[in-house]
Amino acid sequence: MMFTTKMCQLTAVVLEEDVDSVTKELLKEGVMHFVKVTDVSDDIGTYITSASPKVSQNKMAETRKRIESFFNIINYQSADIRELDVTKLSAVNLEECNILLDELAVDLQKVRDQQKFYQQEIHKLEEIKRQLDLISTLENVDLKEKYMFLSIKVGTIPVEKEKAFLSELEPIPSVEIKLKEEGKTETTLLITMKRDSSRVEKILNKFDWQDVEFSGNLDNLGIKAESEIDAKVIELKEKQEEVNESVKQLVTSKKGMLGDLWANLRMNELFYSMQSFYSKTSKTMIFSGWLPASQKDTLETEVMAATKGRCHLEWSDPRDIEKEKSTPLNVPVKLENPKALSPFEMLVRNYATPEYGTIDPTPIVAVAYLIMFGLMFGDVGHGFVLLLLGIWGTIATRKNPKRKGLHQVSQLVIWCGSVAMITGVLFGSYFGYGWFPPLWFDFHGIVVGYEGTGVVKNINDVLMIAIYFGIAVIGIGFILNWINCISKGNWFKLFTDKAGILGAWIYGAGIYVAFYFVGTGYSHLPDGNLLFILIGLPVILLMFKPPIEFILHNRKGHAKKFTAGTFMGWGLEWFAEMLEIFSGYLANTLSFMRVAGLGIAHVSLMVAFDQIARTTTPDGSFNAWSIVILILGNMLVIGLEGLIAGLQSLRLNYYEFFSKYFSGTGKVYAPISLKGKV
To answer: How far, in Å, CA of 660 to CA of 15, rounded?
Structure first.
């Protein structure tokens, strides 16, 4: 767990007749990070050609996504489909798949057309109601006038034709109100949209409609007309809901078939994705890739079994390959950490992927990040709120693979809330109040001006805690850089890098000199001879770094001409590095004062809200308004300070800690696997 996972490279030669069975085994294991065979050897390209997959991966992906669009209708995630089983992998016929999907799409389109029709009718009826509201209070309505977009008619039809008449009008948004019935005829008020006039006229003529003069106030008919419209809208919405349900039922009835298609398409997609990396000769197939060294024996056994021993497998260690190749080897990087540390691995990956063979900083980042956050946000009550929010977010995003990032952020919030509760107990802070005595020191008391007890007595002592913590973090960064240099055999960098032994020597000496100077009341520095050994000697030794680099560079075959300006270049390079070491390390160390500063700001805000709450009553007691102020204040502090503390902890890790040892040049290990990203 301390270093990135040890990898090895496999280059395999198999007979063309065995290539499909071997690919199935590779897919089942899902550990190969494939590379082009031409990347393995510069000369092999003259003997091999690329093996093109039989089926287009892009077309398979398009078909698979069509199926997923159907799943979205019933909120059925592709991840919900049973685990992919490579033994059920079969040849895929994209034409047949798309024919089946086209048939389903046609059926769905018919239902959607019904949905669209009902929605349009609802909009038309609502428009009629709106127009009626505009004219219902007008006196002496003349139906021949153009009132907005409505057509209002009064007429008679035979009583025996009423049902057929209403049936014919049903597809048209309309309101029909029976005014009276006399003998074999009835008088009806008909309200429709002007744009439907031609259709309405044909129906009226068909049923012997006879216009009747009507002039008066529509207000007495308004309530009845509106109720008729509301009833029709409710009826249409019910039909629309039935159609929506029929859409879901249609897709659900095909879910099993669609699931089988999706699974087979996905497996074929991965199958041919693997084979896209293959190369071939006249009778053989060649492929190459990286995998964790711990998986070597298992994969070798499976490939041997699939080919019945008719294959050649060549295993290579990255260090051996680097000795033979002139160009740098970009080995894929896999980080292996406990699942509980996945939020902190996310923070590391968000910055960059560490170089292969170097330290995986995830566990160290977890400790450093949480200590920083706890010192800046130490309160039991606030931490408990964060803990609850983190638990809620984790549960809400647990089963949704598309929200994996939010899931990890929620887990990070759980960690932050927990550590805030621990430091809150150490500081004796519970929603900004000291309900219980602190186990370490009274942060609130010190901020408001009370003299503390023990080691931490005042604000300066709080600031010194942050300084000591910063020195420790930077020191750990030095050690990690040395371990990386030793691991990679980079002895020159181990001594001369700004985070190497000489750089750490200068930093340690600077700390000693600074504390010595402060300890003497800012009156004098250490003895000159000691000062030379502490700072002067490593500075002089670093003067030899540029010329040694020049010599080593030339030995590697990258010759550089030695000119008069070379000395000047060495001098400027040395001066720039010294300036960077002295100013940079000073800035890095002082930057950790923000840990104390934000902790003080957190306490100060809680004190301020407490004082504001007490001003609501003359005697400084609490009432309902005081409680409201405190609740809102705590919400503001949790939201604002929590976010700032989280970001500042991240910043200190990235810029003050990672800069000492982290090389983010790694390539992410991305095997083609059944469990890979869709």
So the answer is: 50
